[in-house]
Amino acid sequence: MILVMMYSGMEMIRSRADLTRARRVVVKIGSSLLADATDGICQDVVDRLVDDLACFMADGVQVVVVTSGAVALGRVDRGWLNRELTVHEKQAAAAIGQPKLMSAYAGAFARHDRSVAQMLLTKDDLRHRRRYLNASNTSETLFSAGVVPIVNENDTVVVAEIKFGDNDSLGALVSLVVDADLLVMLTDVEGLFDRNPNEDAGAARIGVVEHLSEEHIAMAGDAGSAFGTGGMASKLSAARVATRNGVAAAIISGRKPDALLRLLAGEDEGTLFLCGVDRQTRRKHWITEVLNPVGEIHVDAGAAQALLKQGSSLLPIGVVAVDGVFDKGDCIEIVGPDGVFARGLCNYSAEEMRRIKGHASGEVESILGYRDFTSVIHRDNLVLTTNN
Asked: Of 164-168, 188-192, 271-275, which gets the smallest average pLDDT?
């Protein structure tokens, strides 16, 4: 039995004024703020940011820190600068830098009589339902104990297929795992601008984004900093993941004093991305944002309408074709006459689906010799992706 201790979050953040009521916040801090090519860790920056976080915690706000910097600190320690590292060198650099990073945070929070805990994650951890819930339950226990979770990607073992890609993506997924009200991404710029402020002095900061559009995505460049891997494009991608799952997001400067304090006071700081939809369950977060679909089920127009408009489960009679090789419990995409519109966990394997497609639920047992479920995908395990 897995015990899930659910956090009863606030109403969705739909304006700057709502930020004053945020009770659980994920703060992602990038390598460009933390690492220095000469001294390694920028302890003064860590101390200043932790001082701000301690102010929030004193008011009852629960904080998770998602941090970059381990690889960068390892590079500095070994003198591996200004060159491309091999995979094993990156993993070694992470192993060297990780204790330095944790020591910096532990010392900074100790000044406020706060303890920290390290949580190392890979995407593979979150693809497994039990491990996903374990990460959630661990964070809840740490919150109850007044301990600050410090989350980083487990770069010492990670490989390309289980890598988040950048810690902006990790921060977005962590915000879903812990049911946060807000994801804050600290970086070396003051938010999203309509043009590159380094190239155009007339560039204007965008204060609030109600609906993140392709136009906003086009405003972002791709490049990260000398140490970091995530540029503005990765931050907008993370904001999209968060907001379409009921978590507001913000991009602010980590170099500007009091920027974090001003943001949570509801002031005009950085760029705030408002929640677009109501919060989904953790299970639907997991299906939508973590799992990779491994096949497709094509359905007729009637089944598509039942799923889209009536909140129905998918029944075998509405299935017209099956693509791919998948097993029971795998994540698959649902394709209607107008294209992909949903994904979910299939109750039958691809081979079984090809045998029962187009048949009524009552015929499944006579076809397969058994019937585990009346539905192909139960509504609780199905997420609509149209408009996401």
From this structure: 164-168
